[in-house]
């Protein structure tokens, strides 16, 4: 007799849980999806576009592939508008100085929204000049990435000339150009 009372208690509990679970599941299934809108930033805050990590990686890999196709050992750096490095790819055999040079070229390109080969022609002369600004490098090999405004820079260093470095940086830009529109 004791086991039948226990069985009824267990069965009753399971049935009760089943009903509760079904009702809860039904309620959840019937609920409207919640669409949360991003909060509006305060008036003193601005939002700036940033190149996604996927796009930055794609550009860096395309630049490195272009260099390797020509037998060049380079480093590729992608920086954001503030000069923070988002991606760095150092090719096999690239020189130890190429990392810092690539980063500085990338920053220079995004800061002025121009290729570093163009800027280098204007940064000469005696006395103080653009070349004195910390973190910049006015040698060919840096190109800006823009989506309405400059959002990133691609810098390549390590090839025997800035023209080659810039060719590889442009290959990186070309790889993501369609995604910037």
UniProtKB/TrEMBL annotation:
**Cited SUPFAM superfamilies:** GlcG-like
Q: Which InterPro entries does this chain map to?
A: GlcG_carb_metab_protein (IPR052517), PduO/GlcC-like (IPR005624), PduO/GlcC-like_sf (IPR038084)
Q: Which protein are we looking at?
A: Uncharacterized conserved protein GlcG, DUF336 family
């Amino acid at each position: 007799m004791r086991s039948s009372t226990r069985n009824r208690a267990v069965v009753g509990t399971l049935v009760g849980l089943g009903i509760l679970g079904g009702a809860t599941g039904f309620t959840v299934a019937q609920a409207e999806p919640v669409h949360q809108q991003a909060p509006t930033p305060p008036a003193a805050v601005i939002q700036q576009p940033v190149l996604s990590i996927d796009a930055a990686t794609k550009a860096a890999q395309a630049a490195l592939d272009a260099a390797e196709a020509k037998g060049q050992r380079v480093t590729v750096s992608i920086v954001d508008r503030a000069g923070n490095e988002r991606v760095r790819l150092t090719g096999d055999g690239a020189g130890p100085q190429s990392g810092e040079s690539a980063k500085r070229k990338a920053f220079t390109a995004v800061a002025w929204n121009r290729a570093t080969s163009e800027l280098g022609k204007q940064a000469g002369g005696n006395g103080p000049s653009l070349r004195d600004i910390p973190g910049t490098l006015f040698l060919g090999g840096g190109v800006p990435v823009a989506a309405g405004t400059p959002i990133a820079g691609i810098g390549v260093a390590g090839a025997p000339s800035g023209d080659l470095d810039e060719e590889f940086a442009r290959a990186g830009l070309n790889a993501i150009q369609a995604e910037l529109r």
